[in-house]
């Protein structure tokens, strides 16, 4: 018999994917260049030239078995060492290769990290607004996702509500900074306060509380700033990373879990992830992509277009009367809609070929997300449509 739980999930198709499919269909009618599609967070800038050169060099000079054979179940040792060295240099940490577990993107990293530190019935807290896929990521492990209401003033952590929701059942907090969908970057002050609270609660409850830090946007930061590295603030942290954004490699599905060397059982986390893979069928990302990424760890694509696009949209939205917290990073902006019903707001926008994502699935009603990982020229052409939409409806 078909599993009814997964069958029921077919009824709850992602709103983001539905809107993306609408945009594709509309593009066939009027030309996709005339559809202002802000639905999908798909990196739009090319990979670094160095990555392409490395791939070509590997294909020319390495054996087929080395490139296309199975990697070790815990990842290629030389790759893990290089990732650890890079993190140590950048963030003043003391990882070794044994603390790194390569995964199929940040989603694969989260799948392993959650299973590492929870068992069925445990509670995992996350903060609104949050990536909607966190619901199946957590709940399908047998753990239970609980959502802390948003601090809409600046999208930092709502500590009053967090403290109310923490309980002896809490074994992990899932945080996302820089944040999808708000673009907020948790400040050092926020992370310090979070660490102090969790350290106190660990003593009170008599068990570990882990931070699972979802960090795929770590390198997309604006105004010359840097995102504070969560593991510097709290020992029991598992960092979940993807090269999808920094190197524009979403289709290659490459990332890792990095266990803070000071976390409980730090030396066992990678090995435990290997055992988790046996139950999930993960079995490591492709060997050739592990080897290629290891040669460009400290490079990024040219992501300056995202800051350019953010400033264009932010300034226009503010001038049109929207309330909006200015993003500190990512390629998302999260304004408040001009009516309480964000779904109705976004439906009206479709008449102007503006594809916006309502905020309901992000856990904060009355807002909408724009993913501005598109050409700046298209952002500029979308502004008159945005002005007409606002003028004619509000």
Explain what the structure shows:
By secondary structure, this protein is α/β, with parallel strands linked by helices. It folds into two domains: 137 residues, Aspartate Aminotransferase, domain 1 (Alpha-Beta Complex); 225 residues, Type I PLP-dependent aspartate aminotransferase-like (Major domain) (Aspartate Aminotransferase, domain 2, 3-Layer(aba) Sandwich). It contains 14 helices and twelve strands. It has a seven-stranded mixed sheet with strand order 2-8-7-6-5-3-4, with helices on both faces. Helix 3 packs across helix 11, helix 6 packs across helix 10 and helix 12 packs parallel to helix 14. The longest helix is centred in the middle third of the chain and has 18 residues. The mean pLDDT is 96.
Q: How do the strands of the widest beta sheet line up side by side?
A: 2-8-7-6-5-3-4
Which structural class do you get from the secondary structure elements? alpha/beta
Uncertain runs with pLDDT below 50, 5 residues or more? none
Topology pattern, helix = H, strand = E: HHEHHHEHEHEHEHEEEHHHEHEEEH
Shape label: globular
Task: Present the secondary structure layout.
Layout: H1 4-9, H2 15-30, E1 36-37, H3 49-61, H4 64-68, H5 77-91, E2 100-103, H6 105-117, E3 123-127, H7 134-139, E4 144-148, H8 159-165, E5 170-176, H9 188-205, E6 210-214, E7 237-242, E8 255-259, H10 266-280, H11 287-293, H12 304-319, E9 332-333, H13 342-350, E10 354-355, E11 357-358, E12 368-371, H14 376-393
Helix pairs in contact: 3-11, 6-10, 12-14
């Amino acid at each position: 018999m078909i599993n009814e739980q997964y069958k029921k999930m077919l009824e709850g198709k992602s709103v983001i994917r539905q809107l993306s499919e609408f945009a594709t269909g509309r593009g066939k009618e009027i030309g996709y260049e005339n559809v202002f599609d802000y639905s999908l967070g798909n990196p739009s800038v090319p990979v670094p030239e160095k990555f392409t050169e490395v791939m070509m060099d590997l294909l020319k000079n390495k054996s087929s078995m080395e490139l296309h054979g199975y990697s070790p179940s815990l990842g290629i040792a030389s790759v893990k060492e290089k990732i650890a060295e890079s993190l140590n240099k950048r963030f003043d940490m003391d990882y070794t290769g044994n603390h790194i577990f390569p995964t199929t993107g940040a989603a694969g990293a989260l799948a392993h990290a959650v299973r590492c530190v929870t068992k069925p019935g445990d509670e995992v807290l996350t903060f609104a607004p949050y990536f909607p896929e966190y619901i199946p990521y957590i709940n399908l492990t047998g753990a239970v996702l609980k959502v802390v209401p948003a601090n809409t003033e600046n999208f930092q952590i709502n500590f009053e509500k967090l403290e109310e929701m923490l309980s002896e059942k809490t074994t992990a907090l899932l945080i996302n900074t820089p944040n999808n969908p708000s673009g907020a970057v948790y400040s050092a002050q926020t992370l310090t306060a979070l660490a102090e609270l969790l350290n106190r609660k660990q003593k009170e409850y008599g068990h570990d509380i882990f931070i699972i830090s979802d960090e795929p946007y770590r390198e997309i930061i604006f105004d010359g700033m840097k995102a504070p590295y969560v593991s510097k603030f709290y020992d029991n942290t598992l960092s979940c990373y993807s090269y999808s954004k920094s190197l524009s490699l979403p289709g290659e599905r490459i990332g890792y879990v990095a266990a803070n060397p000071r976390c409980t059982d730090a030396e066992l986390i990678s090995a435990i992830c290997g055992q988790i893979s046996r139950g999930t069928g993960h079995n490591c990302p492709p060997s050739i992509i592990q080897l290629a990424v290891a040669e460009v760890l400290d490079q990024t694509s040219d992501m300056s277009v995202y800051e350019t696009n953010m400033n264009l949209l932010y300034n226009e939205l503010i001038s049109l009367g929207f309330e909006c917290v200015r993003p500190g990073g990512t390629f998302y902006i999260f304004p408040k809609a001009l009516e309480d019903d964000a779904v109705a707001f976004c439906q009206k926008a479709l008449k102007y070929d503006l594809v916006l994502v309502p905020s309901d699935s992000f856990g904060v009603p009355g807002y909408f997300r724009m993913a501005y990982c598109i050409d700046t020229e298209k952002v500029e052409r979308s502004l008159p449509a945005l002005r007409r939409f606002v003028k004619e409806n509000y």
